[in-house]
Amino acid sequence: MTNQDLILLGHGGGGVLTHRLIAECIAPALKNPILEQMDDAACFPAPGRNLVFTTDSFVVDPVFFPGGDIGTLAACGTLNDLAMQGAKPFYLTLGLILEEGFPVADLKRVIRSLADAAHSIGVQVVAGDTKVVERGKGGGIYINTSGLGVRSPRTSVHVANAKPGDAVIVTGTIGDHGMAVMSRRQGLEFETALESDVAVLWPMVEPLLKALGPALHVLRDPTRGGVTAALCDIAEAATCGVRIRQRAVPVTPAVKGACGLLGLDPLNVANEGKAVVVCAPEAAEQALEILRRTPLGKNAVRIGTVTDRHPGAVVLETEIGGERRLAMPAGEELPRIC
Amino acid sequence: MTNQDLILLGHGGGGVLTHRLIAECIAPALKNPILEQMDDAACFPAPGRNLVFTTDSFVVDPVFFPGGDIGTLAACGTLNDLAMQGAKPFYLTLGLILEEGFPVADLKRVIRSLADAAHSIGVQVVAGDTKVVERGKGGGIYINTSGLGVRSPRTSVHVANAKPGDAVIVTGTIGDHGMAVMSRRQGLEFETALESDVAVLWPMVEPLLKALGPALHVLRDPTRGGVTAALCDIAEAATCGVRIRQRAVPVTPAVKGACGLLGLDPLNVANEGKAVVVCAPEAAEQALEILRRTPLGKNAVRIGTVTDRHPGAVVLETEIGGERRLAMPAGEELPRIC
Questions:
Q1: The complex's ipTM?
Q2: Under an 8 A CB cutoff, do A332 and B8 touch?
Q3: Strand A276-279 with A167-170, pairing
Q4: Rounded to the nearest 5 degrees, what angle is found at the Cα of B120, between the Cα atoms of B115 and B122?
Q5: How big, in percent rounded to 5, are the helix, strand and coil portions of chain A?
Q6: Are B60 and B70 in contact (CB under 8 A)?
Q7: Which candidate in A19, A26, A53 is best for mutational testing of the B interface (most B CBs within 10 A)?
Q8: Tens digit of each residue's pLDDT (9 = 90 or more) over B203-253
Q9: CB-hemisphere CA count at 13 Å for A280?
Q10: Closest-approach residue (CA) in chain A for B232
Q11: How far apart are the C-alpha atoms of A138 and A74, rounded to whole Å?
């Protein structure tokens, strides 16, 4: 590998090298008329009245993992934050922090993954920035994406909007992303059976928003902290209790096995292609039907109910008939999962 | 210093520790109704029809430097990118990548600086994200900010909008930011006389936009790569030549001295509180008057002219009467300056 194949400090200096890196390795994959103005900011007409604006940084280790890479994740994570507000994603920005010595070929591959995920729902990357830090001051590549979307004025999904009696649904098996990353990081044997679920959720969310209208109360993507953190957020924000049945929670045998080996609870493990859906009880069957018709939601299942008992608390009804309160994970179990 | 005073990996895990860090160290300084929804994305009405969207990551080393810190820089850099499009800044997002072991007190100080700069022009930080990487995988703190602003439909400032005959103005002395950072990094003696010019440019830009209207052609902040890179961008985008007089370029004695010692050209050194202004020749005097009435623009001066000679090239008329073509800096001279 020659020096030309690796990121140099000068690639972040804002001069000739930066321009060349962007022109050769970044812009081609992201090609669109707004970005091509190549100004320091993107100008465009407001895509709608009710805007949704979000940001996320991605530091996942390793950069490439079974089922995706940091580029897929950086697009999906931010696009999904918009979708979880009921917002159609329109635009992304891309902030790169590269470590000196990172392979240019890997950068191209990551940008291609990011572009593919964004373009799959017609989202354009309209502005970007590239910085380079010295060897030993980074993790190969860190990515920030910010996203801008638009939501219908009729949408009222919000984490505080859960109501006693509501159905709690997950849109598929849980823990896949976290265990895929962990397995690659630890070089575990069961690696081959584990694959991240990283995916753009909007195509699954859009028909749900349209069909359920105001009966759809909460959408939440169970990323860091897993389903447990998502449910704790909902219980706290809505001052309701949440009860889920362990038996109903879908987990693949591979994730269950890996979690057992590492002493992790799948409920606490990150997902990047799933949603927790809370809706009015009378809409629950319709929600499941709609979700199961989409490729991402084919394993959707109801796992529990919102209750006015124990406000603020999430309670698991265990497989052996007991009850256990789920606490917000401390956050130490799975560092750098996204 | 106890462990509680330092950033831990768990602060980035998305659980209890992350929530506590945000609630205690980040949210209080940024307090506003949109952020307080504490959802994964911020929802608000579109602040105008013509949106401007930008992103920037900040990796400056050292984190604290004479005249500011990475927080000041992270606010000003992105707000100024909006202002340079003629856009009034409205909203910021804040993406933090913290290194395990970074002092919590330093984080609070940085967030305070960022909030002060944003609030000085009524901008709110409406969404954020916090990640933590292991010791030796970061630089203490890296910050990404994305910004959303609105520009008047009558504004046509654009880097390609320079026309032969236009006046080229800089709004004050150049090279201050870059040399302040370099001096602190290298522990140079002349450090005391050097201070970054980092500042929010909108209060200087707003009256200029209003008064000059379509006679204002280009606004560009000469950050990485300095005035040279800004002028090269203009010459290339507008397919014009730019001629500047070295004698007219304002440089403090301290910056001149430090540049001499380090073998740097002040024209290539980063600024964070200056603008390059290109306007119709008949508006040049008015532009200078307006700029000089603002605190940030009091040393504004015309340094040159756009020409139809040598399209794409920037030519310096030297103090000794010669001519020298200025090339886009390679980008290697001053790494991690912002």
A1: 0.96
A2: yes
A3: antiparallel
A4: 90
A5: 40, 25, 35
A6: yes
A7: A53
A8: 999 999 999 999 999 999 999 999 999 999 999 999 999 999 999 999 999
A9: 10
A10: A15
A11: 17
- Tell me how far apart the terminal alpha carbons of chain A are, to the nearest angstrom: 29
pLDDT tens per residue across span A274-303: 999 999 999 999 999 999 999 999 999 999
Cβ contacts of A205 on chain B, cutoff 8 Å: none
> To 5 degrees, how large is the angle CA B113–CA B114–CA B115?
90
Distance of CA B190 to the CA centre of its chain: 24
CB-CB neighbors (< 8 A) of B275 in chain A: none
**Is residue A299 within 8 Å of A311, Cβ to Cβ?**
no
How long a stretch of residues is chain A? 338
Contact A14 B221 (CB under 8 A): no
Neighboring chain A residues of B46 at a CB cutoff of 8 Å: 46, 48-51
Across the interface, whether the CB atoms of A57 and B81 are under 8 A apart is answered no
CB contact under 8 A, A10 and B159: no
Q: Identify the bridge partners of residue A149 per DSSP, sorted by sequence position.
A: A52, A89
CA distance B133 to B148: 28
Whether A32 contacts A157, CB under 8 Å:
no
Q: State which fold the B159-326 domain adopts.
A: Phosphoribosyl-aminoimidazole Synthetase; Chain A, domain 2 (3.90.650)
Residues B316-330 have pLDDT tens digits of 999 999 999 999 998
d(CA B295, CA A235): 51
Q: Identify all chain A residues contacting B159, using CB atoms and an 8 Å cutoff.
A: 39
Q: How far is B154 from chain A (nearest CA, A)?
A: 13
Best of B21, B40, B60, B143 to disrupt the A interface (most A CBs within 10 Å) is B40
Longest Cα–Cα distance of chain B, Å, equals 66
* Residue range A32-151, CATH number: 3.30.1330.10
Name every chain A residue with its beta carbon within 8 A of the beta carbon of B333. 13
Is it true that the peptide bond before A62 is cis, omega within 30 degrees of 0? yes
Instruction: Answer whether B59 sits within 8 Å of A133, measured CB to CB.
Output: yes
**Are B56 and B144 a contacting pair, CB within 8 Å?**
yes
Q: What average pLDDT does the structure give for chain A?
A: 94
Interchain proximity B335–A138, CB inside 8 Å:
no
Q: Which residues of chain B carry a pLDDT beneath 50? A: 1
| Token reading at A122 | 């017609």
Nearest to A133 among B139, B144, B330 (CB): B139
User: Residue A94's beta-bridge partner residues?
Assistant: A128, A145
Q: How far apart are the first and last CA of chain B?
A: 29
Q: Which residue bears the tokens 């004695």?
A: B253
pTM reported for the whole predicted model: 0.96
Beta-carbon contacts below 8 Å between A and B: 275
Predicted local distance difference test score (pLDDT) of residue B3 = 57
**Least CB-CB distance to B15: which of A91, A139, A329?**
A329
* Ranges of each domain in chain A: 32-151, 159-326
> Do B11 and A331 lie within an 8 Å CB cutoff?
yes
Eight-state DSSP code of residue B135: T
B225/A15 Cβ within 8 A? yes
Distance CA A314, CA A292 (A): 26
- Token pair of A103 as six digits: 């392979």
- Which residues neighbour B123 within 8 Å (Cβ) at sequence distance 6 or greater? B75, B79, B89, B90, B91, B92, B147
Which of B55, B56, B161 to mutate to test binding with chain A, by most A CBs within 10 Å of its CB? B55
Tell me the sheet residues that pair with A95: A129, A144
Residues of A in contact with B57 (CB under 8 A): 95-97, 129, 131, 144
